[in-house]
C-alpha cells in the first residue's frame, strides 16, 4: 500500500476513535455508492452526520480541510443521498470534515461541523 494510503487509513481510524469518544454512534465506514465513498457515517443527537476525513503529514501548503473541493463535496452529497434512501433514514443530515495532521512531531485533530451544505 502506498504511504499516502496508509496515512489516510490511519487518519480514518483516529477520526473514528475521536468520534466514538465524543459520543457519536458510528453506523458505517467507507460506505460506497458506485465510484463514490463516504469515510464515516455516524449519528448523534438525532442527526445523521457524514464525515470526510482528510489526513496530511503537514499543513505547509494548505490545511487538510482545504482539499475538500466543490466536486468532492458534490460526490459526498450524492453518496449520502444513496445511503439515506437505502436505509430509509429520516433525520437532519450534517456534513463534517475531520482534518488530521499526523507526523512524527505532531498529531492534531480539527473537527469542522457543518463544513459544507447541499446546494438547494
From TrEMBL:
Residues annotated as signal peptide? none
Query: What Pfam families does UniProt report for this protein, alphabetically?
Result: UPF0102
Organism, by scientific name, is Putridiphycobacter roseus
Name of the protein this chain belongs to: UPF0102 protein DNU06_03615
Entry's family note: Belongs to the UPF0102 family.
InterPro entries from the xrefs?
Restrct_endonuc-II-like, tRNA_endonuc-like_dom_sf, UPF0102_YraN-like
Q: Protease: present as a keyword of the record?
A: no
Key words, A-Z: Endonuclease, Hydrolase, Nuclease
For this chain, one GO molecular function annotation is: nucleic acid binding
Query: Is the keyword Zinc-finger in the record?
Result: no
Q: Which PANTHER family match?
A: UPF0102 PROTEIN YRAN
Amino acid at each position: 500500500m502506498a504511504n499516502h494510503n496508509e496515512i489516510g487509513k490511519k487518519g480514518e481510524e483516529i477520526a473514528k476513535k475521536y468520534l466514538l469518544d465524543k459520543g457519536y454512534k458510528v453506523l458505517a465506514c467507507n460506505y460506497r455508492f458506485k465510484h463514490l465513498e463516504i469515510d464515516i457515517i455516524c449519528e448523534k443527537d438525532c442527526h445523521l452526520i457524514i464525515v470526510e476525513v482528510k489526513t496530511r503529514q503537514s499543513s505547509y501548503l494548505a490545511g487538510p480541510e482545504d482539499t475538500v473541493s466543490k466536486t468532492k463535496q458534490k460526490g459526498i452529497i450524492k453518496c449520502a443521498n444513496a445511503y439515506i434512501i437505502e436505509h430509509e433514514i429520516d433525520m437532519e443530515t450534517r456534513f463534517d470534515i475531520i482534518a488530521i495532521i499526523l507526523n512524527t512531531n505532531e498529531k492534531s485533530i480539527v473537527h469542522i461541523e457543518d463544513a459544507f451544505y447541499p446546494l438547494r
